[in-house]
Each structure stands twice: as structure tokens, then as C-alpha cells.
Write a structure and sequence with these properties.
Layout: H1 3-11, E1 25-26, E2 32-33, H2 43-49, H3 51-55, E3 59-65, E4 70-76, E5 79-86, H4 89-102
Antiparallel strand pairs: 1-2, 3-4, 4-5
Length: about 100
Amino acid sequence: MELNKKLAEWAGFEFDDDWSDDRPYKSPDGVILHNWKHFTESLDTCFKWLVPKVVNGDIHIETYTTDEETAVTLMRACDTVAWACDKSPALALCKAIERLIDG
């Protein structure tokens, strides 16, 4: 399953079975979104829709950034729950959240 679709379903978005960039989506708060930036492309979108759901359960997010990549770690107390690295900070966060979803 495409990562943006998987994250949207997890966050509570509603959409037709036909997932594509040019179709409108209903956000969890009932707003119809057209041409929105996908999670893997935008930290703003991630922090609006994904991060509140992640941190709602006792998980916190740690990041480490170098010139080459960003590492994102999702932690519960002192235990790592999920982590990921990527050149794109938004994609690193999305990959870590995907690992959290997959358990």
C-alpha cells in the first residue's frame, strides 16, 4: 500500500478507493481538502494530522539531523518504539510512524 494512503487511513481521512493526487479527501475533522501536500512531502502536514495522534498515547518524538539525513525515533519512556532515517525529514517521520502502525 502506498505510504501516504496508509498514513491517511490511519489518521482518519476518508477517500474513494481510487487514491490519487488530484482527488479531494475528507479530513478527520470533516473538511474537504483539494490539492493538499501529502505527508511524505510536508512536515507541516505531518504535524497537523499525524503527530497529535502519535503523541496522544505516551509516545514522544526525538530527531537528529546531519547534512545528509534526518533520524526520527519514536520513544515510550526510555524504550524505542519505532525509528527511521531519510534525506527528507518528512519522509523519515512518515517511515517511523509507519513502523509504529505496523507494530
